[in-house]
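Re: that chain you flagged

S.,

Sorry for the slow reply, it's been a week of failed gels. I finally had a moment to sit down with the sequence you sent. For the record, here it is as I used it:
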Amino acid sequence: MKALCQTFCHAERKEDGTFTSFSLSYPENFNFGYDVVDVIAAEAPEKRAVVWCDETGADRTLTFAEISALSSQAAAFLSKQGVKKGDRVLLLLKRYFEYWYVLPALHKIGAVAVPATHMLSASDIVYRANSANIRTIICAGEDELCSKVREAAQEVKIINHLYCVRSEQEGFVRLDTAMAAETTSFPRVDTHVTEPMLMYFTSGTTGYPKMVTHNYTYPLGHIVTARYWQCVMDDGLHLTVADTGWAKASWGKIYGQWLCGSAVMVYDYDRFDGKAMMNILEKYGVTTFCAPPTVYRLMAKTGIRPEAFRSVKHVSTAGEALQKEIIRMFHESTGLEIMEGYGQTETTLIIGNFTGASPKRGSMGKPSPLYDVMLVDADDNPVPDGEAGEIVINTRERMPEGLCMGYSNNPDANARYWKNGLFRTGDMAYRDEDGYYFYISRADNIIKSSGYRIGPFEVESALIKHPAVIECAVTGVPDEQRGNIIKASVVLAEGYAASDALAKELQVFVKDRTAPYKYPRIVEFVTELPKTISGKIRYNVIREKDAQK
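Prediction finished late last night. Pasting the structure tokens below so you have them in one place:
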């Protein structure tokens, strides 16, 4: 069968990868559960949808026929239990393969899926349940996780439906067995593309997580993500390293991939191991691979096994900026160029190094044809090439598919990030004369020192080239004379010990590779950096800690 992305997407491009035209067309009642999962199942029932394995060596392959039937059974059972259109359902399913039929089941019902990480504490679950008006929770059947959910449910008395999979747990209905008696077809529920379908809580790098709401066009926005950036293949096998609790799973583990005909590879693990990940790539013949910068940094620092990437045709990264040195090291080992991209929980891919284009190392690439991207100053005036500006999406003429509906129950956030017809990302970048965009930092993280505006990433990019540095974060520390001075928090690689001599060596190392005013006047060696549970560095925590000294 023809990949469905060709049904919904119409694009014309030049040989250099530039889009000359792009549009999406779809019915007003488009629903991923019916119009993608069920359609593929009807036309190509044996087509692979999910290839799943875990750390023990267990594995399972699910076809689209199985996903379609299981999602209909789950939808039928949950509907009988009272889950209805518009209800918000919290999903804590880790990398369990059940996620890949429970999510389409909720789409079929018209319920709003709220995926979240299993690493949440009971109080985190309470916060999300209260904020999102959660009534139903579906989670992995693990003792510790179910215990946290039970504790949260006691505090949030309005939670009255608890489900788990794979095991019997006190206070939970075991969904995967209870739904088995239901019909494998589910009558279509009327949904409209402008209605809420999916909700994510942001990672909370600068405060309490915000609730981002997406409508039913969101999966279609990821056609660009999968087809033109990740370069997934029809009947291929794509692996994105992400937990289902984060938006990156929607970027790389279901929507765009299935629309483009690719199966998704799911490696279910509790603790990341670079060698084990490379073994999975080799064993299952993964054809396209996407991972956050942390994964590539760990691989580059601990050793890349080239033969593990023999079947891989394309690699990509997003989530944070990736240093050019890591891209170079990875290319030398595998022959593959890591194609960077940029987007947020609130969006699909905004900027990317698209197939056919000649990438510039260290650049996020060029804007997606879905979005009218601008770089603006504090007064919303466009900035010239080479000058730093905030990345915004112009929505004055149309709301693009893939952009969120806004922040639920948060008028302050909506007022801050939606202004004058512009969606403000809060990220700073500059554009070169060839139209390539380069990330600088979060707007809140820009350091002003002695009249200079310094982005942490450029200093971190210099530091990471030193063999002693496995990870680092650069922040500003208040200084009476300079306003702020540069501080580097450094995690050392194995075999290196903290010392004044090494701190001096790192300072000189940066001076030799950047403008002299950018070197860190303070180098602090730490065992780990404060991070969100999604793995992003919490610069605000470092700054707050320094302010208390």
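What I noticed first: The mean pLDDT is 92.

Talk soon,
D.
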